[in-house]
Amino acid sequence: MPLEIKKILYATDLSKNSAYAFRYAVDLAKNHHAEIYLLHVVERLGPFAESIVENYLEMKDSGHHERIVHESIERTKKRIAAFRDRELADHPEIVNEHVTIDVHEGYPVEEILTKATDNNCDLIVMGTHGKGLVNHTFLGRIAERVLNRARKPVIVVPLPEGETEASLPDFY
Questions:
Q1: In whole angstroms, what is the distance from residue 104 CA to residue 41 CA?
Q2: Contact 151, 120 (CB under 8 A)
Q3: How buried is residue 24: exposed, middle or buried, by Cβ count under 10 Å (0-12/13-18/19+)?
Q4: Residue-level pLDDT at 151
Q5: What is the pLDDT confidence band of residue 59, given thresholds at 50, 70 and 90?
Q6: Which run of H or of E encompasses 110?
Q7: Which of 68, 98, 151, 160 has its CA 20 to 30 A from that of 6?
Q8: CB 165 within 8 A of CB 15
Q9: Are 34 and 27 in contact (CB under 8 A)?
Q10: What is the DSSP letter of 138?
């Protein structure tokens, strides 16, 4: 039975390597006539840090934290859309409407797994940093946790051999 891929969840942390991994998602989408669900999660503060920020901001202006998060998400969506448009310029067979952008606040691992299920994605594609033995030889913290918990196939794209993040193009 051939592998049927109709929707790909591409998770990005907006690093240069995640931009490199996007090319894998695009190539897979092109070969399988699939859609791409592009997800970036703004990591939520831990409970202790969040309570400190909330208490400080409440003294200054109630609702300030929510506005900051909302504005940040909107700016990030625009930057990701510009990146998407640039990357898809060489792939006329994949139109922008086939790449849905979702940016929101949450816990990355939980959101990636939940969105993959909620959006009926057949595959998860994400990049990793591979920063050496101290930070897990080939997998980043998020990629490793997604890989361990996913119930769908996951493609983790490492930095190309001999490359560093400094030699890769910017995400946006």
A1: 5
A2: no
A3: middle
A4: 94
A5: low
A6: helix 108-118
A7: 160
A8: yes
A9: no
A10: S
Look at residues 138, 134, 155 and name the one whose alpha carbon lies nearest to residue 146: 155
What pTM value is reported for the model?
0.82
CA distance 72 to 103: 10
The model's confidence at residue 131, banded by pLDDT at 50, 70 and 90, is low
Decide: helix, strand or coil at residue 68.
helix
Phi, psi of 124 (to 5 degrees): -115, 130
Report, as an integer, the average pLDDT of 125-152: 74
SS3 55: helix
Q: Which amino acid is at 55?
A: N
Under 8 Å CB-to-CB from 125, ≥6 apart: which residues? 8, 9, 10, 11, 21, 24, 25, 28, 154, 155, 157
What is the full DSSP assignment across 116-131? HHHTT-SEEEEE----
Residue count of the chain:
172
d(CA 127, CA 110): 17
User: What residue type is assigned to position 48 of the chain?
Assistant: F
